[in-house]
Specification:
single chain, Rossmann fold, ten-stranded mixed β-sheet, three-stranded antiparallel β-sheet, 7 helices
Length: about 260
């Protein structure tokens, strides 16, 4: 059972070093955004939340892989010491891969209907697994046409709100920031729907060393001050949040002004 903070029940994230930083964990039933440019450990952070939540806290989880095949996902996790097949066999996690033509289907139909249909499918797996956690990585496929972006914004809005209202899992969604854009998310709506926003990045120190970092941009209903924290990737453990960065940094990927 998580702690109660400001009358909201929290659950530990399972990400080493993060819970003490954000006041105990995530608010149950809410959605958190992990954003960043390519190669900034978004997927690993989300997967750490899912796997450690199951192993440490007995909260099974569902991972929805939007832009990788099942085989690619399993192999990627294996390289970091996680046996997805074994975790599935133990009933700790489930992996779902939506149909690859989701953008075409959203174009042809009402995005609200598509989102609600996906939520209904997710709910069935949540009930079967008694899942408490959900990861959607990324929240929507990458598109370039303006008309597709507008449609996907509505799809994302309905999807996130419906998951919170109808399923009740604690969720992480990821989104990729276009390189050099200075945006917080790809579609400009994800950060408003999320209870917390974490921007992953890479920065360089004065002596020329590179650091992986996490900027805590937003934590609604939690006494957290925005700050930049160094992270480390540890095999079989995942992402570990280290201390707050005090030294001057030069951003390599997008980060707020340092």
């Amino acid at each position: 059972m998580g702690e109660s903070h400001l009358y909201y029940e929290t659950t530990p994230t399972g990400i080493e070093g993060l819970d003490v930083t954000i006041g105990g964990g995530f608010i149950r039933g809410r959605t958190y955004l992990i954003s960043g440019e390519t190669g900034t450990a978004k997927t690993l952070t989300a997967l750490t939340f899912l796997i450690q939540g199951a192993l440490k806290y007995g909260e099974p989880g569902i991972y929805i892989s939007v832009d990788e095949t099942y085989e690619q996902f399993v192999e990627g996790a294996r390289r970091f010491g996680w046996d997805i097949e074994e975790l599935r066999a133990k009933g700790l996690i489930e992996v779902l891969v939506p149909e690859m033509d989701i953008v075409e289907r959203i174009r042809e139909k009402d995005p609200t209907a598509i989102a609600k249909s996906l939520v209904a499918s997710i709910r069935e797996y949540v009930v079967a697994l008694n899942a408490q956690r959900l990861v959607i990585d990324p929240i929507a496929p990458l598109v370039s046409l303006d008309k597709d972006v507008q449609v996907l914004r509505e799809y994302i809005r309905v999807l996130v709100m419906s998951i919170e209202r109808e399923i009740g899992t604690t969720n992480i969604i990821t989104t990729e920031i276009p390189s050099g854009s200075g945006a917080i998310s790809r579609y400009g709506v994800e950060e408003f729907l999320a209870t917390g926003v974490f921007i992953m990045g890479i920065a360089k120190t004065r002596d020329g060393n590179f650091k992986r970092v996490m900027f805590i941009r937003k934590m609604r209903w939690s006494p957290v001050h925005p700050g930049i924290y160094e992270i480390e990737i540890v095999p079989k453990i995942g992402v570990v949040v280290k201390g707050q960065v005090k030294e001057p940094l030069v951003p390599v990927t997008y980060l707020p002004t340092l």
